[in-house]
Protein 1
Amino acid sequence: MVGIGLVGAGAFGEFCLDAFAAMDDVQIVAIADVNIARAQMLADRFGARAYPELAPLLANEAVSIVALNTPPALHAEQGVAVLNGGKHLFCEKPLATNDTDGKRLIAAAVANHVLLTVDYVMRYNPFWAAAASLRASSVFGTLRHIDLANHANGLSLPASHWFWNKQLSGGIWVEHGVHFFDAIGWVTGQVGQALSAHEYTRADGKTDCVEGLFRYGDTAVHCYHAFDQSGETEQTTVRLTFEHAYLTLREWVPTSLEVQTRIDPKHWREHLHGTIKENTVYAPEGKSVLYRESIQAGMRNLIAASQRTAALNVSGADGLASLQVAAEALSSETPLGGHDVHATP
């Protein structure tokens, strides 16, 4: 059993704890949060020790891997402390909020002979994996264009939430966009470059929407992220245009992949995994199950890599590459006001 300590026991931290607890090869041994009552409540539930801060958790010899689920601005300081403490780091995205801190984390992992990975769940999603496999096969020809329209749930976040504070979150490109920058880099096999970007502000001055143009080798990419929907109305669509096909991924953690092509299915069906209906492959179990399984797969890969039975699928360098694209977009942003269709109630 591999001992896991989790830092940052918010709602997503609890979701991760549920995912880890369902794994046969791990044991949750420690939970730290500045809200010690919250940490204690979850510790009681999972049979772990509760701590009000990181340092005593790192002193717990039963902890082999630390899952870091705190706001992005804390990842550098806390992540370096984890790595200097001789623990492997399972870092929630983003790796850090800037290039310098990302490099510090990578250097700390190397210096202490421990592993660092980022929780990029798209790498373990069967539909993103199918897109990557189809691109690599060249069965549909060259991948020419990717269009991402991400209409996300932001209305449930109060104005006081750290997500809206760029000093804490890094902004939408850094906090959220890195998921897709990594996935697109994985699918294309190319390093991303930001060409131009814009941000939109709502009535209360919060940035709730960003849009940008990017280039990954010969593939043109358009990204639109808007946090102006509710949980009931949010939608995400990623459309990949090849020379001889269109692929459409639906939901931000995709639950389906639709293929439009004149090429005979016998040449491409082998790349699809899931329940197939006509030219669409989907996961009837739904987004939450896929999300949990992807988190488990990332943790399982880190454990295997730490035991030298597998290579690390997502390295610190991967986390840095996606962060650098986000930083380029952030630095090239042009503010656009008057985007006040949805204001926080």
Protein 2
Amino acid sequence: MDFNKKGFTLIEILISITILSFMSIAVFNIVNQSTDTQERVTKEDQELLEIESALKKLDYDFSQLFTPLYYSSPQEEEGESDQSDDGQDEYNSTNPTYSEHDYFDGTSKSGHPIPAIFYEKNTEFILFTFSNKRKFENSKESQYSWVRYYLSTSDENKNLLQLNRQMKASDIYGSDLDWSKTPSYSLTNTIKKLEIFFWDLEKEEWVDSIPEKNKYFSPIIRVNLIWQDINGNENYIDRTFRILWPTFDTAEHDKLVKAAMYPEENENDKDKED
């Protein structure tokens, strides 16, 4: 037996164990930090995705905004109509049901009720769209719907705001749209400030209230949004949305048609002006 061979001493073994312990702790810290970073980044991505999804929903609803004024000019007076050569009314008369309505402002010359856009600054935004997809055939739901966005205090943080969405697709022409009985869904609850601006066609500038000429539709809206992430940082988003805007003014188009069909009336109007 060879007694000259030497193994590890106790001190060497203890030193090795100590080094391995430090290495294990270092590896554990790296893995733990990576896990924390992954969770934080995932949470941040979820927050951003939530914000983008909310804006995408608003974009979709606004792009689907509907009004008969795309193809028909508004009926200016009660019972107004143009007479054709055979004495028949070319257009339907105004429906009195929508003359004094909370959500409609009279009818167009084609007889369709004209929904208006409603906006209460920093509180709610209501519009009429054809974005609803009926889930059941022959159901009482319409493809048209009223959509309401409104702000409330966040359920998770009283210092933040929550953006909610409601959609009503039944009894849309009723005189009373009871939003208290309509389901509400939270889109995001991390908002610090939300502003909506409308493009004024006459002034050619952004305004924070609905211009009179844009009362029934606005070709462009702009949303300024400040939201707070999990780290307490404020993030700013400025987004512009457009609708399918008609290429001509229906009221002006009606004037041109009337002038072509009844030139004698046009001459009489000119004589009165002179």
